[in-house]
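<goal> How does this chain fold?
<body> The protein record starts here
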Amino acid sequence: MGVLNTILEHNRSFVENHEYEQFKTDKFPDKGLAVLACMDARLVELLPKAMGLKNGDAKLIKNAGALITHPWGSVMRSLIVAVYELRAEEICVVAHRDCGMRAIDPNKILAHATERGISEDTIDTLRNAGIDLDNWLKGFDNVSDSVRHSVQTIRNHPLMPKDIPVHGMVIHPSTGRLELIIDGYTGKAPVHA
């Protein structure tokens, strides 16, 4: 049985047994928080628990590396919508140690793409159309610097109100320990004693 069939079978039971009732809430985040986090499978349950979040507390936006690669992309749009339409009053960017986006090799990804049937002609067409695949697929070298970059991109966006605190953190994917990189209230890195 494939994954889809397993999911659908579980869902039928979930709905029939009214298991959804424990998750009832509305679309507005109770803690007024939007979180941009990595899509890493280790963080599915760990991140909310490490942050003390339950269903309904926050808007959770996930992508590879918790990266904002373009100020006019879907991540920034989601954050703008969260602030103006969904009552988010603070934003947290949470990346993690041991991230798959750290020092990722775009050439390796494109080689895997060709192994899976994407033609060299398609890749060449994209490059000739002006798409910088190497930059688009590139990850980061330093997770803390990556968080700083995403925080700055959010803060400096022309549509983001200046009164929204934007915090930056790194979580350890085994322990859940959060390391504060940018304190959104002060706009600075924490001072360690």
Q: What stands out?
A: Residues 87 and 113 are 40 Å apart (CA to CA).
